Amino acid sequence: MPPPGGGGRGGKFLxxxxxxxxxxxxxxxxxxxxxxxxxxxxxxxxxxxCIVVSTVCSIFPSILTGNIVDVLAGKTEKLPxxxxxxxxxxxxxxxxxxxxxxxxxxxxxxxxYLNSWISQHISYxxxxxxxxxxxxxxxxxxxxxxxGDIITRMxxxxxxxxxxxxxxFTSILxxxxxxxxxxxxxxxxxxxxxxxxxxxVPLFVLPTRMAGRTRWKLASQAQxxxxxxxGILNETLSVSGQLLVKLFGREKDEYMRYEEAxxxxxxxxxxxxxxxxxxxxxxxxxxxxGPMLLYLVGGLLMFNYGYMDLTVGDITVLVxxxxxxxxxxxxxxxxxxxxxxxxxxxxxxFEYFDMPAEIENKENALxxxxxxxxxxxxxxxxxxxxxxxxxxxxxxxxxxxxxxxxVGPSGSGKSTIVNLIPRLWDVSDGSVRFDGNDVRDxxxxxxxxxxxxxxQETYLFNxxxxxxxxxxxxxxxxxxxxxxxxxxxxxxxxxxxxAGLDTEVGNRGLKLSGGEKQRISIARVxxxxxALLIFDEATSALDSISEAAIQQAIDPLIDERTSILIAxxxxxxxxxxxxxxxRDGAIVERGQHKDLVHAGGTYQGLYExxxxxxxxx
Length: 617
What we know:
- This protein has 617 residues and is α/β, with parallel strands linked by helices.
- Helix content is 61%, strand content 9%.
- It has helices at 16-20, 27-37, 41-72, 86-136, 139-144, 147-189, 191-236, 239-247, 251-303, 312-333, 335-353, 414-419, 444-449, 465-469, 478-487, 491-495, 514-527, 544-560, 570-575, 593-596, 602-609; strands spanning 375-383, 389-398, 403-407, 429-434, 437-438, 451-454, 532-536, 562-566, 578-583, 586-591.
- The longest helix has 53 residues, at 251-303.
- The model is unreliable at 1-11 (pLDDT under 50).
């Protein structure tokens, strides 16, 4: 993003970062860019036609101004016969000029609408394509890429495409057509004055760009200083920041730091604005040089060299056309900057489109008629980066209707094991089977619809309890929701609220306590009616009262459904049919509590340091 002032009348310039990261423009890249534009080629042709007609119509009033001057001077010999002379000719020319300006403006409105329509539809296509692509990305993508970067690609970058289509491309066309029409008209009037006008243009443009570069550099420094000032404000005036400043007695130091940065910003702003004043002095001076030279050369041609067919009106036309050339020339000199930024924007978007979706449906994926929830791990290895193994030779079987508890130290790989079942990740080696089928052979929607996961960190959308529950099943009836809430031990709380199921939960459920959010998430999972229930540390971050309420909800569910529990609460572990003890990515022990608690292994250590403290917590 260029700093303030970088895109003004003084010209546009690339930052050092943009220069270092200039995209390589290839035929393949251009073909890909235009693949989004080609579906709207008919509309683009209309835009081009509108630009041509509008530009010609807007140039002609400048030509007609010269004819008006000639009529006023009584020089009508060169005018078409139908114009005539005197007041009738004057009225005709004035009305014709106004008519052409009106037509030009009306066509310009149509061109703006078409431009906006095309650019909006192209960004609509790209946003849809990007969102669909991001939905297919694996957990690896979302855990390795910052959320801010994802949102920037979805919003700022794709929105920038709109300005490229509606601004850069059409601006190039419009400026080129304006220049061509103006040059043709100037040479048609007098080739000598036309050459003089062309020679004068650099005298206007070059100082403009030099002054613009100075302003741009000063504005860059001022922006950096402004960022520093804002950083100080954000750090020291936030709730936590101001408390830290007070506790360490650093008020005076922080004030001195702010005063220094603020003073530096003021000086840079003054320099930038004064550079702007000098810029406008140069601009106004050189913009007057061109017309004066044309008047001088025109006068010499008329009085000293006998160019009697050259009229005052002709010179007036040439001056007006010269003025029309300054803007397009300056804009076309910025084409390289606009072009590089446009290609960089498309390149960033295409980088995301080219990221492979690691987890995809297999062709002709299986969709069984029923699901029992049986899970089998066969010699499973897993690595996030392809180098360090997180899971090593994991093998176990969970039969339908039974439950297992997975325990182990933090970071041992417990959550990774359960994440492989709904294919949030794919195994590196071995296989995970669901009802006897490799999960990679099953339809993803079918597989995930049959698995219910209650995570440690509960996420609720900003809306009502009803809306959050129906996220699991849109057609859930009132009775279904009430039954699920009762099983999740949350209905008493909901029914006590004035709005009941229509109670607002707030952003991320912040209007509810942790225990209330967790029980609503359990009810939401139950509405899916999954064949397999997975509880991933569902009570680890809660107080003892909330934990007990959730435990009352979980215990009956374990008896009703095939379940996997990652737990630290002893009562939950005891309720499981089998306990798997995981350490350093491998199953080191398995069995029941009575067999493992005195075996002298990892489980006994966990029991003595963690589980026993939660027996009646």
